[in-house]
Request: fold
Amino acid sequence: MLNADRTDPAVLRELIATELLAARERTGQLTGAVDDADLVAQHSPLMSPLVWDLAHIGNQEELWLLRNVGGRDPMHPEIDPLYDAFEHPRAERPRLPLLPPDEARAYAHEVRGRVLDLLAASPLEGAPLLDAGFAFGMIAQHEQQHDETMLITHQLRQGPAVLDAPPPPAAAAPPASEVLVPAGPFTMGTDTEPWALDNERPAHRVDLPAYWLDTVPVSNGAYQEFIADGGYRDPRWWTPAGWEHRTAAGLTAPLFWSREGGQWLRRRFGHVEPVPPNEPVLHVSWYEADAYARWAGRRLPTEAEWEKAARHDPVADRSRRFPWGDGPPGPEHANLGQRHLRPAPVGAYPQGESPYGARQLIGDVWEWTSSDFTGYPGFRAWPYREYSEVFFGPEYKVLRGGSFAVAPVACRGTFRNWDYPIRRQIFSGFRTARDAEVGD
Ligand SMILES: [Fe+2]
Reply:
């Protein structure tokens, strides 16, 4: 579907409607799995009440599609400030006079009905926001991104399990523990991906020295060796800021882990279970990922190294949309879309392998990189500075690849995520790299 002929407006309209519906079905699952008391509760000061996300989804859809694209008047101007993410930090949102759950649902539903009418009549061209259905695609991605945020809230929520999904596919060990990416230039970012966001643009050539990259993300089993070797107690492995944070926050293991009877357990969406050694490690901060890499005698990859390993086809010297090619992600390629409620074991998805042989670059866990979040050469803020530009700077680190919680519409080889280096309630893991030596 994502590779459909987007130049045909009828096909593009159907694609947009399908993506908007998929997002709304997921929103319905995530908000319908708990009662109203749960929807208005704040499960962590890091997160909004679920009912805030619900009305915010509707409000952003109204703002961008009905008002900016459609030229309509605001439906409820008095609620706009409540759902402006920049006006109210998450911690204070529960104290706002938010729409109660039934009104939030009715509002989002009403907006959606009007948006589908607008879509049916739209030429989907003739204005920058309309070309290739960009604003519609942005809104479908926005809702799916909030669905991932709501899934994080579910993970932080205490109480019995309310979500369910089948297990991911099993895996055999990959053929080699690391892959060699030879020196040379590649094209990073995109000018052609129609729904790419401003920070993924423009396409530009980047020349890299040769490096080795882990074939798969670092596993829980490998991470447990770091813990057992005293990794959390040894300042040698940590940056000064990382050590300061580790000490102040009392970190001794990934978030949601506990130690019982000589065994590591984890809490996952209401289930307490032994930590599976073959799964990618999840819920680690950038500081922890960086310390592990140094302990292992390695380093985190740069963002450019991650993207070259994921997209560059050395035979054709071109960058693909995804590691496996230009076709959309299927269930055989990657663990995406909350199809499973956990990462797949390392080595899974051989059909999703990149030309250099790395696996699971897309899906499973967001991967921390060593890079700060900045604009590419020639960056232009679009459609508003608050999307990306206000976050540029050394305080945010880039994550790549998407997790099991990311929807295909919001995932591609160029997609960039960013967060503070202390964050670990997100679905974050990592893989490591090292410089290649002469003769490798
Ligand atoms: Fe938002």
Summary: The pocket of fe (ii) ion is lined by residues 56, 60, 85, 142, 146 (CB under 6 Å). The CA atoms of residues 192 and 203 lie 9 Å apart. The radius of gyration is 22 Å.
